[in-house]
Amino acid sequence: MRFSEDRLTTFSAGQGAQRRVHVWEPEAPRAVILAIHGGMAHGGDYVTPALYFRQHGIATVAYDLCGHQDARRVDIPGFEVFLDDSLLFLQWVRQQYPGLPIYVMGHSMGALIATHLALGHFAGEAAIKGYILSSPYYVNAIKVSPVLLALAGVLGALAPRMKVPLESLTDQLTHDGGITARHHADERDGIRATEITVRFGNALTAAQQGLAARMSAWTQPLFAVVAGDDKLADANAAEAMLKSVPAHLLTYRRYPQNFHENFNELNREEIFADILAWMMR
Predict the structure, then answer these.
(1) Does residue 17 lie within any of the structural domains?
(2) Fewest beta carbons less than 10 Å away: which of 44, 73, 200, 241?
(3) pTM of the prediction?
């Protein structure tokens, strides 16, 4: 397997779509991580934390989100597709691992999705024991002028699949050169996207709106990691939003030197050990 998975499979998502699932699992797992990947990425990107947690008896399952499976340009019908598909994926996970505690892990856009799930679709799910968020994409670190934002709305209506001009940030996601090389190889092979559509960008922007006011309604344990030198997600905005979660539910870490991908950074073993201790508390 390209990302050291124990197996690849599929589950039935909305509209009859089959989503690819990357599975890393020990022989007798004691818990399972339902992982949601970031924008322009894929489920295989969870290989680094998944291999760590597999050594400690915890399975990780991650599906390729709508618009991301073997895609060079990401396009989605709307943000709701992520929430609806993830609800179906949760049902699949419960069937595959009956009775096991489930932890939802989300990075970047995946953390944005997981936040919406925690406050909506997944609310009240007794099988979910907590959430693990990395560099949540609550606010874009790259500021966009109001004129361009207005144009995005117009283009979203007239040419929703039009390519959005983007500066590549692949070299500023992690200080680990080996993982950066893997990302570039994935881009070259068409596994990792390098482009997005106007419709996709607009969907993420809409999903960010009004979220800050809802964070105080969080009800489950949360372990959050923010990267201080994040070029993609606004670290200070994420910190402020996360700290509005009830204090008794929040375990918070900020690493000033980290680039965006905490789970792929040079200090990842420290992060994983902290997460594992939190999970097993």
Answers:
(1) yes
(2) 73
(3) 0.95
